[in-house]
Design brief:
alpha/beta; 4-stranded parallel beta sheet; 6-stranded parallel beta sheet; about 260 residues; globular
Length: about 260
């Protein structure tokens, strides 16, 4: 394989990782991209740690064997917080994980009350406790796990706009907690949630939303420094572990984002 054509492989349970692809393409506009969605295992946020720890490394092993990427990005907070060490040990290439942007939120917050909005699996991880202790020790960090927002983000890309009342109901999971009325920054700790940011801002205009996408993009640039890329942009490749009606609808909506090749794993 020509080194310039080696792709960057992005992996998520669904389409949330597209919120990481966008800032990466802004910095590396000609990078070949394979985006893999584990649609057969979607959603991860309601699964047990043992299920995710077994499933993610096995799938990534198959994907790396098929597509021979230069770099793997686990563009999923849940998969990263649970399976990242095992994946790094198993794969002989760089693996970038996704970390909730609690440090950025703490640097931004004036009220010192931060919301962390993720999946149920992510917000209960000790890893989040550690990030809060290291980077937001002087803040109150409130958490809420939402499976509904993941479904709403997937639906939005399949052509169904998210109802404002449904968005408001999920944000209330943070705002209705003791001290929640003082939240001024919310960490989108699921890569699906930035896809709904416009809708969330419309419901909660007083709050700033932050996510890890831009930081991950900068890390990808650093790890590929000096490597060859195509002279012009190339079509992106979408890979689903189950390719059904919903997935085809999502793929059709992504043709305008240069994802023109669709495959099943």
């Amino acid at each position: 394989m020509d080194p310039a054509t080696q792709p960057i492989l992005f992996f998520d349970s669904g389409v949330g990782g597209l919120s990481v692809v966008a800032p990466t393409r802004a910095l590396l506009p000609t990078a070949p991209i394979v985006y893999a969605a584990d649609s057969a295992g979607f959603p991860y946020g309601t699964k047990s740690e043992s299920e995710i720890a077994a499933r993610v490394p096995a799938l990534l092993g198959r994907l790396v064997e098929r597509y021979r990427p230069r770099l793997v990005v686990i563009a999923c907070n849940t998969a990263s917080t649970i399976a990242l060490p095992v994946v790094r040990a198993a794969l002989d290439l760089p693996v970038v994980g996704t970390v909730p942007a609690i440090k950025v939120a703490a640097e931004t917050s004036r009220t010192r009350v931060i919301g962390v909005l993720g999946t149920q699996a992510t917000v209960r991880q000790p890893y989040v406790d550690d990030l809060a202790a290291r980077f937001a020790a002087d803040c109150t960090v409130l958490r809420h796990g939402s499976a509904a927002l993941v479904e709403l983000a997937e639906g939005a890309l399949a052509g169904t706009p998210p109802p404002p009342d449904a968005i408001a109901a999920e944000l209330a999971g943070l705002f209705d907690q003791p001290g929640g009325d003082r939240i001024d920054v919310i960490v989108n700790a699921c890569t699906h949630f930035p896809l709904l940011e416009d809708a969330m801002r419309a419901v909660a205009p007083q709050v700033a939303f932050v996510d890890g996408g831009p930081g991950i993009a900068r890390r990808i640039v650093a790890l590929t420094q000096g490597q060859a890329f195509p002279a012009t942009p190339v079509p992106g490749r979408l890979v689903f572990t189950r390719l059904g009606t919903r997935e085809r609808a999502i793929a059709a909506g992504l043709e305008s984002q240069r994802f023109t090749v669709v495959e099943a794993l």
